[in-house]
Design brief:
5-stranded mixed beta sheet; 590 residues; SBP_5; signal; 6-stranded mixed beta sheet; globular; ABC transporter substrate-binding protein; alpha+beta; Peptide/Ni-bd; SBP_5_dom
Length: 590
């Protein structure tokens, strides 16, 4: 899933460089981390939330505030593909399965949510059956049924002309999924025949092939129930019907959302949620520096998990008391440059390899905020995803690029120079700085790239994620950041490498990569029961992709989160790109 990149201020680059790479790494709780905060409370220490739950409490009351500098793709659980919205949406939309709140890798543990237990596979993994918990209700008191889960999957995966922002795994893998036209065109009540609901508490998924990680798939918010009678398509976001512990009190598009307790949520049906705060406020389009200030004051959470701004970062890392209120962790993400493999001359592998060799990755790392923001990457899979194997197909001295090798590849491609465009998100200064560093590297070998900036909220729907648009605009290079949809090689690779995942809007396979060998290996891997064998196949896919040079790994993303001291139950979880788990955050006593 697409994780929001940490934001970087250009004016702070020199300050960050001056700190030096050694001090940029946070290393557990040191003596210097044992500090008293401005409000008189004792800090748990740097990285405490990566090892356990900070400020554990069952205290009820108060308001938890989330802030972000832009707007999300959508609050609709069936029409979103950002990690932070997967995280937040669980407060009002319960999927069949979800991840257990816990530090680091513990957060990757799958547990039943709407379902009473994990899925029961049969037919070698081609059929999966789930039973819903008894007594489930929507915010209006009406019962939640298996038909509502079936409908949620149908609207989110089979109506791509209406809801295009989420992944389409179900469309790809359900039997007869290629024939069903979706619930807005299907006027009958039957729906997709390969999803059966023999009774109100049973849902059965029939797949076209074995899918050994299906429990992960149903942990996406696309399985959160939606009552068909209340669905208004793309406008459903304005009146979402809650199945979780909170419901929408108000929603102002582009401004703010306010959630309050759902009085028809029953804790007897939900062993995970605690429903602690009275109110949850999500503020949109907040100045990034203001977010930093509010987080430091203990009164807000950076919703998208970008971490502290670069202008704040230098100050935080050199002040022991402020550093003690931070968590630095891997986010299960890769920052990379996607190369449009369908656009001439990048349809030739030699031209793509020229880009690989040309880029000074150290300059890109510096632009992103230094080693604290990510380690230099050379593979598709990050080190914290199963299937990763250390490798560097386009190694250069000190990772600073090789002009001679780049020019050799350009010559082999039949080019002496290339003119193209590179995209970055306009509301992400850090991404813009990284793109600028890449432009400077490419210019040295004769590849002239002009920067095109587009807003995050429409980056995939209107711009980089629209194949016709990037072809028309001569866009050969696109800045991208990607996190695993679930913690496995398949959960990371499928939506950015499989040719079947390419869509005409909302596309995340930005390279438009369609290699039959890779497609077949992905299919083989997900049907393989043995975990070790499956992981070996993911390693092979990584190698083949790098051989084809369709994307340039830049950094293995790390995040530096500011930890608000006035909030409780803060724990950084690998399941949501290192963000704090939003399920049970509360407000501490004053």
């Amino acid at each position: 899933m697409e994780g929001k990149a940490p934001i970087m201020r250009r004016s702070a680059l020199a300050a960050i460089a001056a700190i030096g790479s050694a001090s940029l790494f946070l290393s557990g709780c040191s003596k210097a981390d044992d500090n008293t905060n401005d409000n008189g409370t004792k800090s748990a220490g740097a990285n405490a939330a990566t090892k356990g739950v900070v400020n554990a409490s069952d205290k009820k009351g108060g308001t938890v505030t989330y802030e972000m500098s832009d707007v999300p793709d959508s609050f609709d659980p069936g029409n979103t593909y950002y990690a932070y919205m997967y995280n937040l949406s669980r407060l009002y939309a319960r999927p069949l399965m979800t991840f257990k709140p816990g530090p680091g890798d513990e957060g990757n543990t799958l547990v039943p949510d709407l379902a009473a237990s994990k899925g029961q596979p049969s037919d070698g993994g081609k059929t999966w059956t789930y039973k819903l918990r008894p007594g489930l209700k929507y915010e209006d008191g009406t019962p939640i049924t298996a038909k509502d889960v079936k409908y949620a999957v149908e609207r989110s995966n089979f109506a791509r002309d209406v809801l295009s922002l989420g992944p389409n795994y179900f469309q790809q893998f359900m039997a007869d999924g290629d024939k069903y036209k979706g619930p807005y065109k299907d006027k009958s009540d039957k729906g997709l025949s390969s999803i059966e609901t023999p009774d109100d508490t049973t849902i059965v998924f029939h797949l076209k092939q074995a899918f050994q990680e299906f429990d992960y798939l149903v942990a996406t918010p696309q399985t959160a129930p939606v009552p068909k009678a209340k669905d208004t398509g793309v406008d459903y976001v304005k009146h979402i019907v809650s199945s979780g512990s909170y419901k929408f009190q108000s929603y102002e598009d582009g401004k703010q959302a306010v959630l309050v307790r759902n009085e028809n949520w029953d804790p007897k049906t939900d062993p995970l949620r605690k429903q602690l705060p009275d109110k949850i406020v999500v503020k949109l389009k907040v100045n990034p520096e203001t977010i930093d200030q509010d987080v430091a004051a203990g009164n807000a959470i950076d919703l998208v998990g970008t971490g502290v701004q670069a202008s704040t970062q230098a100050e935080v890392l050199t002040d022991p008391a402020k550093k003690a209120n931070t968590d630095n962790t891997y986010g299960g993400r890769l920052v990379y440059l996607a190369i449009n493999s369908k656009l001439k001359p990048f349809d030739k592998p030699e031209c793509r390899k020229a880009v690989q060799y040309a880029i000074d990755k150290v300059s890109v790392q510096t632009a992103e905020g230094g080693p604290v923001r990510g380690e230099i990457a050379s593979t598709v899979l990050p080190p914290d995803i199963p299937g990763y194997a250390k490798s560097d197909a386009y190694a250069t001295k000190d990772n600073k690029g090789d002009i001679a090798k780049a020019k050799d590849q350009l010559k082999a491609c039949g080019q002496t120079s290339i003119s193209t465009n590179i995209t970055a998100r306009s509301d992400r200064p850090q991404e813009i700085d990284a793109a600028t560093a890449i432009i400077n590297s490419l210019k040295k070998v004769g590849i002239n790239a002009s920067l095109k900036q587009y807003p995050s909220g429409k980056y995939f729907t209107d711009y980089a994620g629209v194949p016709k648009f990037i072809e028309k605009q001569n866009i050969g290079l696109m800045m991208m950041q990607w996190g695993a949809d679930w913690p496995s090689g398949y959960g990371f690779l499928q939506q950015i490498l499989n040719g079947k995942a390419i869509s005409q809007s909302g596309n995340t396979n930005l390279s438009l990569y369609d290699n039959k060998a890779v497609n077949d290996l992905l299919g083989k891997a997900i049907a393989t029961q043995d975990t070790g064998e499956r992981n070996s196949l993911y390693t092979e896919i990584d190698k083949k992709t790098m051989d084809d040079a369709v994307l340039v790994p830049l950094t293995y993303f790390k995040v530096l989160l500011g930890r608000p001291q006035n909030y409780t139950n803060l724990v950084s979880t690998a399941a949501f790109s290192g963000q704090y788990d939003y399920l049970n955050i509360g407000v501490a006593s004053k």
